[in-house]
Structure formats: structure tokens, C-alpha cells
């Protein structure tokens, strides 16, 4: 049996720390349109829902609306629960390691049902690394892999696990939080409540570019860092190789236990992923058994600018097919 997904679309909305965008994708993975947007996450829920609805309309074709909206968020997110709250100290202040971008109140519980009612289209919310992993598994570097682990760097340290083409979320729904693996017993207290997490021991996300710029003594953008790495700049490539070695340390036990066949390094890094891949390989080959690392491939992601939106298409297609074969009504928009 073959299920025809032709003509069915999903709108992917990326609510990142440094970038926001809306993309119309076919459920078969085709890019149909995109635009940059600005959604003010500090506004009340009703105003935010209206901005999200306007973003959907911006890329939707005149004839027909998407069958689903998938929202990508740059934070841990548990379906049915929401994003974790930032713990406060005795004075009611957030710890100094709290994220620079506060989490909006409406994401602290899962607003999917409320957004579905407001937009008239089924809404799903997913962590950005999970979507990028699904995109690479469905249409990118991880096609055909049995067990693939996607490693996020640019939005922030993270990982996502795809087994047999499906996301593995773990018992609590947040499997893959690499940034919150403790790597230093005497490290600072993290916003998650743990001590010495990778995300505060080593700069990542927007801080990655700032760190390289500080080392080189000049201002840089992410695009410039990627260009320098592609051109063979020695200090930049060395810095990224060392970053790969740092990331590999909390991965060694995990890789030995899970025995994946593929690690995919952040699609957004483009050619800058190559030295990071070298650092990962070097440490994993030294710190894992041969029977583990000899069967493990490490490669850069292929979907440089479309990993999140492609992952949204894969997720929406999976949900559509699941509902169809189970006899339930497939995802479909409601009149607004």
C-alpha cells in the first residue's frame, strides 16, 4: 500500500533564539515557500496566537490551507507538559546561568490544543534538535540509518535520537538533553538544577561565535565563522576541533550503551562541521571499544538551512499516516 501525500502541506514556524521563520513544506519534503517573521514571545497568549496565525497565512497558498502547523522551540519541551520552569533561589531570583531569552508563560504548559483552536489547524510543538534530527533522517544525511543521533551546537548543545526513522523521546519525553549532562563535579549550578552541565562549562549557541571572536580579537558572525572554517583558517578550525573533543566526552558512555550507527553534526554549521567531526572521531576512537567506534559513522548534516522545516514535514507526515491507518480522521484544517 502506498499513501499519496501529494498536495498536502505543513507550515513550520521556527521560534529560535536568533532566528524566526515560517516555511511551507510539502509532506513529501518539498520546500514550497518561506519568509522571515518576528513573533513577540513576551506578549499575552492571544496576541501571540494572532501573530502565529498571520505567519501561517503569509506562506500559505490561496487555495487550501496546511493540514498541520509545527512550531520549533529552542528549549526542552515535553508534549502534554510544556517547557520546564526556571528554578528560583530563596530570594526569588533566577540563577545567573539562566538563559538570556526568558521562556514565555504560555510555553510552560503545552499550548498545542489552545493554538489548534485559535488557528483552526492542528498544531504540534517540538524541540528544534528533534525536528532537525527527523529532517536529516527523512531527507538528509541520516537516510537509511537504523539508529542516528543528531548533535546540535548552533541553537545550543543538544542531541536527538532517531531509531527506525522515529524520534525516541525517552520515558519523560526529553531524551537527548546533551547540554544538561554534568561534566564537572565542581562546576557552577545550572538552570536545570544540576552542577557543571556541558552547556555552562563550554560556550555554545550564540556564545560559540562570541568565544571564537574573543579568541581572534575581532567581531564575527556565524556566517563568517563558517566561511573561515571552509577556507581552512587554522585558529577557527582548531577551536572547532577542540569543541568536538569536548562534546565527545559526555557522549562516550552514551555511544557505548546505545551503539548507534551514525552521529550527525549540526546541519547549520555547514562546512564548519568538518573540524568538529574530526574532534568527535578522535576522542570517540580513543575512549570507546573498537566494536563500538568501528561501526560508527560521524558526518555533517546535509540540510544546512532547511533541517527544522524538513523535520516538521516528516513529523506531520508520520502523524497523518498514523491517523489514516488507525481509522481516525487525518489531520485537516478547520474553517476560520
From the spread of the alpha carbons, the general shape counts as: globular
Cα-based radius of gyration, to the nearest Å = 20 Å
Q: Which structural class matches the secondary elements?
A: alpha/beta
**SSE sequence, one letter per element:** EEEHEHEHEEEHHHHEHHEH
Low-confidence stretches: 88-92, 94-98
Helix content: 25-40%
If strands are numbered along the chain, what order do they take across the biggest sheet?
3-2-1-4-5
Number of strands: 10
Q: Helical region count?
A: 10
N-C termini distance = 34 Å
**What share of the residues does DSSP label as strand, in percent?**
15-25%
Q: Provide mean pLDDT, rounded.
A: 87
Oligomer type? single chain
Q: Main sheet, how many strands, which sense, barrel?
A: 5 strands, mixed
Explain how this protein is built.
The structure is a single chain. This protein has 10 helices and 10 strands. The protein is α/β, with parallel strands linked by helices. The strands form 2 sheets. The chain has a 5-stranded mixed β-sheet, with helices on both faces. A 5-stranded mixed β-sheet has the order 8-7-6-9-10, sandwiched between helices. Residues 88-92 and 94-98 have low confidence and may be disordered.
Features:
336 residues; alpha/beta; five-stranded mixed sheet; 10 helices; globular
Short description:
Helices cover 36% and strands 16% of the residues.
Topology:
Blueprint (H helix, E strand, L loop, with lengths): L8 E7 L4 E7 L4 E6 L8 H15 L8 E6 L38 H8 L3 E5 H12 L7 E6 L5 E6 L2 E3 L29 H4 L4 H11 L5 H9 L3 H25 L3 E4 L7 H15 L2 H4 L3 E4 L6 H19 L11
Parallel strand pairs: 1-4, 4-5, 6-9, 9-10
Antiparallel strand pairs: 1-2, 2-3, 6-7, 7-8
Helix pairs in contact: 3-10, 7-8
Amino acid at each position: 500500500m502506498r499513501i499519496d501525500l501529494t498536495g498536502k502541506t505543513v507550515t513550520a514556524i521556527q521560534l529560535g533564539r536568533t532566528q524566526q521563520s515560517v516555511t511551507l513544506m510539502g509532506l513529501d519534503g518539498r520546500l514550497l515557500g518561506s519568509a522571515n517573521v518576528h513573533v513577540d514571545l513576551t506578549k499575552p497568549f492571544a496576541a501571540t496566537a494572532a501573530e502565529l496565525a498571520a505567519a501561517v497565512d503569509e506562506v500559505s497558498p490561496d487555495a487550501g490551507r496546511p493540514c498541520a502547523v509545527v512550531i520549533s522551540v529552542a528549549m526542552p519541551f515535553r508534549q502534554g507538559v510544556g517547557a520546564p520552569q526556571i528554578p528560583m533561589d530563596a530570594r526569588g531570583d533566577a540563577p545567573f546561568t539562566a538563559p538570556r531569552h526568558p521562556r514565555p508563560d504560555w510555553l510552560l504548559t503545552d499550548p498545542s490544543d489552545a493554538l489548534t483552536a485559535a488557528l483552526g489547524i492542528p498544531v504540534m510543538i517540538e524541540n528544534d534538535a528533534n525536528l532537525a534530527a527527523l529532517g536529516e533522517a527523512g531527507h538528509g544525511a541520516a537516510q537509511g540509518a537504523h539508529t542516528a543521533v543528531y548533535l546540535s551546537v548552533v541553537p545550543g548543545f543538544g542531541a536527538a535520537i532517531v531509531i527506525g526513522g522515529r524520534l525516541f523521546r525517552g520515558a519523560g519525553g526529553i531524551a537527548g538533553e546533551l547540554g544538561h549532562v554534568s561534566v564537572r563535579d565542581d562546576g557552577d549550578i545550572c538552570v536545570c538544577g544540576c552542577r557543571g552541565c556541558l552547556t555552562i562549562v563550554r560556550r555554545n549557541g550564540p556564545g560559540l561565535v562570541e568565544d571564537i571572536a574573543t579568541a581572534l580579537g575581532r567581531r564575527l558572525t556565524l556566517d563568517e565563522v563558517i566561511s573561515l572554517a571552509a577556507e581552512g583558517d587554522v585558529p577557527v578550525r582548531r577551536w572547532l576541533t577542540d569543541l568536538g573533543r569536548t562534546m565527545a566526552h559526555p557522549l562516550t558512555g552514551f555511544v557505548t550503551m546505545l551503539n548507534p550507527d551514525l552521529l550527525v553534526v549540526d546541519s547549520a554549521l555547514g562546512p564548519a562541521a568538518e573540524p568538529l567531526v574530526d574532534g568527535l572521531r578522535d576522542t570517540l576512537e580513543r575512549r570507546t571499544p573498537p566494536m563500538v567506534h568501528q561501526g560508527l559513522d560521524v558526518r555533517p548534516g546535509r540540510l544546512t538551512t532547511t533541517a527544522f522545516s524538513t523535520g516538521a514535514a516528516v513529523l506531520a507526515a508520520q502523524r497523518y499516516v498514523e491517523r489514516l491507518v488507525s481509522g481516525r480522521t487525518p489531520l485537516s484544517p478547520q474553517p476560520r
